[in-house]
Amino acid sequence: MIHVVVPSTHSSVKTALHPNTATTQEKQEYIHTPVANVKAEGEGWRLELAAPGLEKSSFKLNVEGSILTVEAAYTTREEEGVKALRREFGYGKLHRAFRLPNNADTSGISARYDAGILYISVPKKAVFRVEVG
Amino acid sequence: MKRITNQPIGINRLDQFVDDFFNRGLNAFIGSDHFASQPLVNVFESNTEYTLEIAAPGLEKSDFEVRVEGDFLIVSAQKAGEQSEEGDDKFLRKEFSYSTFSRSFRLPKHTVLEDIKAGYDQGVLKLRIPKSETQVQKYRAIEIL
Fold this sequence. Notes:
The structure holds 2 protein chains of 2 kinds.
Chain A: E1 4-5, H1 24-27, E2 31-32, E3 36-40, E4 44-50, E5 59-64, E6 67-73, E7 83-87, E8 93-99, E9 110-114, E10 117-123
Parallel strand pairs in A: 1-5, 2-8
Antiparallel strand pairs in A: 3-4, 4-10, 5-6, 6-8, 9-10
Chain B: H1 9-12, E1 19-20, H2 27-30, E2 40-45, E3 49-55, E4 64-69, E5 72-78, E6 91-94, E7 100-106, E8 117-121, E9 124-130
Antiparallel strand pairs in B: 2-3, 3-9, 4-5, 5-7, 8-9
């Protein structure tokens, strides 16, 4: 189970940098926007975030008002005598923010990490109907 | 869907970096700029081996097929029981699907095919390709008489 913090201290939303030419140290600073799917699921929605090669403890989820923010950081360790010929993923940070629909129940958000995907369930607020007699 | 507001640009700045939960705009019909279906790859080299990391989240170990054809290492995946467009109407935003892909890599000459090891963990397929100690002469130069 991934801990969801509601609400949080404000964290600034940063722009994504483009990883072109960079030293390893600079690469730690890169912020990537992970791709996401959103699906209708039961009485709510399921958000899937592609974030391969992490641990569930690397994720930080925050809800502030109607904005859901997901952050995670890779720990790139340099091994002696190993050189990277190509590096397309698994370094720097992931950051993405979503505006949730008005009828989302932010207190009921839960998340799990499986096979490189972070699944976030967002339930709908319960609707209270008044019978018109 | 882009929300149109009458606020001056300065006030609405932050919104540019916040995505709406739903993406039922035009690109649902004409395709999105950032739809990902080809996995990203890392390649490392040490004195003894090459390591290939392929980011293909959301699959099972048994969904992968890894084979060598000539000089090429071909990695493909087909998610079991997944009809490609199954339940597509339930998607309110769709930016990735790694359920079917194929990617090939040209192998360096001095590798031991028999000892290639593969493992799938946290959405990453990791292949270890050992280098051969003696440079096997796979190719023969043909002399022109």
